[in-house]
């Protein structure tokens, strides 16, 4: 295999991350619109995206704010939705854990669903890459994803309520997560966690302030961990 340059690896990341622009643009525009409808101005809306950069958590927080939920509930719910980032970080640690503190800090900031999904699959495929090559690919994926998120959040905030109701930008939300989750359902633990999460979210949908999502997330993680433990023990018994 020919030696890969940092430039070529970076552009691999850009190429893999670029298809997500198709959903990032309407997704971020929709957030800008929703945020201004909730009472935030353009600066506050864009700052929200810069500081949090977590679409699902941002939508959760804004929706709860619109419903006058207590501040504590807003914070806990947004953190619960973002608990998956802790799992993403743990999954990326074997690949990026030896990077410098500054590199890990930037990688943590740009760890979103899309950068994680592309990177963990590529790192598993290219185990021969160095830390530098992995980081180059990771930031390559982030390049076509994060700047449009900031930009079109601002566009949505400026457009605000001028967008016709018939223009259903919210189609981007389920499509984004389906595109991310589908390829990652590779083991029994993944499938079990996904199934229990969906079922629990439906069962506990009656809970106020979207707390059903918090319950579903916890139950899904517990199920996935238990199934993974069972599978690991079975594999060890077969090998014995």
From TrEMBL:
Record's bilayer topology term: Multi-pass membrane protein
UniProt-listed InterPro entries: Brnchd-chn_aa_trnsp_permease (IPR011606)
Entry's Gene Ontology cellular component terms: plasma membrane
Compartments where found: Cell membrane
Swiss-Prot/TrEMBL keywords: Cell membrane, Membrane, Transmembrane, Transmembrane helix, Transport
Domain of life assignment: Bacteria
Record family assignment: Belongs to the AzlC family.
Protein name (database record): Inner membrane protein YgaZ
Organism name: Roseovarius halotolerans
GN (gene name): ygaZ
């Amino acid at each position: 295999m020919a030696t890969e340059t940092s430039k070529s690896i970076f552009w691999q990341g850009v190429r893999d991350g670029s298809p997500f622009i198709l959903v990032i643009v309407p997704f971020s525009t929709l957030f800008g619109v929703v945020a201004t409808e909730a009472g935030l101005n353009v600066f506050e809306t864009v700052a929200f995206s810069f500081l949090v950069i977590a679409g699902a958590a941002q939508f959760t927080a804004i929706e709860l704010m619109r419903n006058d939920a207590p501040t504590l509930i807003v914070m806990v719910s947004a953190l619960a939705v973002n608990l998956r980032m802790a799992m993403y970080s743990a999954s990326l640690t074997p690949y990026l854990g030896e990077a410098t503190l500054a590199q890990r800090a930037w990688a943590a900031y740009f760890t979103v669903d899309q950068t994680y999904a592309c990177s963990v699959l590529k790192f598993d495929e290219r185990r021969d890459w160095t830390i530098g090559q992995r980081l180059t690919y990771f930031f390559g994926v982030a390049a076509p994803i994060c700047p449009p998120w900031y930009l079109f959040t601002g566009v949505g905030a400026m457009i605000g309520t001028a967008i016709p109701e018939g223009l259903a930008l919210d189609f981007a939300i389920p499509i984004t997560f389906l595109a991310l989750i589908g390829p990652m359902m590779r083991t029994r633990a993944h499938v079990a966690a996904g199934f229990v999460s969906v079922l629990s979210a439906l069962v506990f949908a009656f809970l106020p302030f979207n707390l059903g999502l918090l319950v579903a997330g916890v139950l899904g993680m517990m199920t996935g961990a238990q199934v993974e433990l069972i599978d690991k023990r079975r594999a060890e018994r077969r090998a014995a």
